[in-house]
Design brief:
This protein has two domains: about 45 residues; about 280 residues, no CATH class. The protein is about 35% helix and about 35% strand. Helix 5 crosses helix 6, helix 5 packs across helix 7 and helix 6 runs antiparallel to helix 7.
Length: about 350
Amino acid sequence: MKYLTATLAAVLCATTASVGAPLQAQGQAQVDEAMQSAEQQKFEQDRAAILAMTGDYKVQFKFTETVAFTEGYEPKDPYLSGGYEIVRVIEDRGDFISLQHILVVGGEQKMPIKHWRQDWQYQPKKVLNFIGGNAWEMRDVSEDDSAGNWSQAVYQVDDSPRYGAVGHWSHENGVSEWVPPAEWRPLPRRDMTKRDDYHAVVAMNRHAITPDGWVHEQDNSKLALDGEARVLVREVGVNTYVKSDAFPTEVGDEYWTKTAAYWAGVRDIWNRIEAAGKPFALTQKGEPDQLYMPLMGLASEVAAGDKSANAAIIEAKAVIADKTTTDLPPLAARLREPAEKTDY
């Protein structure tokens, strides 16, 4: 911004020094050129920050409930977990970057687990929007909100959607960070499998590049949607990614080499659902294990050489068709009731 301001000031001074129309036109051209140059510089800075999230990491996930807003609610004990993870670029079209996370877990015998994916789109026209009860829609983004900004869409282990937002990358005071407004997202799996007292998270998530990796900071409100919407509790999340060579990264890379074609086919299926333009939902309430278990299982068969990627994609398409719908019940009917994990 300082670069742009100084450049424009110099150009405008040169322009106003003469009242001749040709010089004014030339001055305007210089202004336009300076603005385009500054925008391109900012775009490249943004891309560099996104790409800086790739690498090999020791990760830690820490979540702490802080303040209760519903009478009688007691904040739960902090949640802490971690491990090792690789992050790889799986697509880069300039204004679109897709990063795949793969965990490397286990004792002496390490194994890979496909983790989440983050897709970045420059100046998006639409953004993925979670609308509660395992349902999503693609929301239009205004020109003002889109200009110079990036959307981040996050996907689950089976490439089904989780949440999206549009935010601004800044590079001030030596810190590159992306900050969006708060948006809804589904429950994290750590709560989806154990709790039934809330239904969505109102979350602001910030990504910032650090000297030894990056950090994903979250400011969350856990939202109950049965009856009148109410916040149970606020939560702070800090997920750190610290560069590490203390684990066999080839375990994750080999898995991706073997399964990349299969997962590309699965992504294409989900992309087509999003591109159709209709709100869509999973038919299973709560934890969608009936969706991700078969899809992950097919990937394992492909990795083991027991099934071709093409054959697995055909089966995956049938699974996704069976477990999704564009005929959405009302929100209340999509919410999981206590101790309930049924279909509709």
